[in-house]
């Protein structure tokens, strides 16, 4: 009896997952879909002053890329390989296009920095340790 209940539950979950897989996008008009993509990509961006360990998400344009017309990129961003990016915080384009910070570093102000030990960018871009050293991304960490 218990195994039958498990089988029914698994089948139910599989049917529910199949019904929910992307059918909504096919019902939307191209205009609505394009604007939805633009809204989602702009929401993914992080405020440049705050930054974060993995850098800012690039903005993908719904109607192609920025290669033919770099002016479509927002202020403070630049077209790199068809994507508008903020060179001051993008880990794959830090300071200039295609300059990638290594995995253990973050991009702050266009430079690759170690957010675990940099007293000017301790744990996050712009987070300054004034009286103690930065250790493990924390000021005055008593490890």
Automatic annotation (TrEMBL):
Family as reported in the entry's similarity comment: Belongs to the STIG1 family.
Keywords (A to Z) from UniProt: Signal
Family annotation (InterPro entries): Stig-like
Alphabetical list of Pfam families matching this protein: Stig1
Superkingdom classification of source: Eukaryota
Signal peptide limits: 1-20
Biological source species: Marchantia polymorpha (Common liverwort)
The protein's name: 4Fe-4S ferredoxin-type domain-containing protein
Signal recorded as keyword: yes
Keyword Membrane: no
């Amino acid at each position: 009896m218990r195994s039958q209940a498990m089988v029914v539950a698994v089948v139910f979950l599989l049917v529910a997952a199949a019904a929910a897989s992307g059918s909504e996008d096919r019902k939307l008009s191209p205009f609505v879909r394009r604007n939805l993509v633009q809204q989602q990509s702009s929401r993914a961006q992080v405020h440049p002053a705050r930054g974060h360990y993995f850098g800012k998400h690039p903005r993908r344009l719904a109607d192609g890329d920025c290669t033919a017309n770099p002016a479509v990129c927002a202020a403070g961003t630049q077209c790199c390989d068809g994507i508008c990016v903020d060179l001051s915080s993008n880990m794959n384009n830090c300071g200039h296009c295609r300059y990638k910070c290594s995995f253990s570093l973050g991009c702050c102000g266009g430079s690759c920095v170690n957010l675990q030990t940099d007293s000017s960018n301790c744990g996050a871009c712009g987070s300054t340790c004034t009286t103690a050293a930065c250790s493990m991304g924390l000021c005055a960490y008593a490890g």
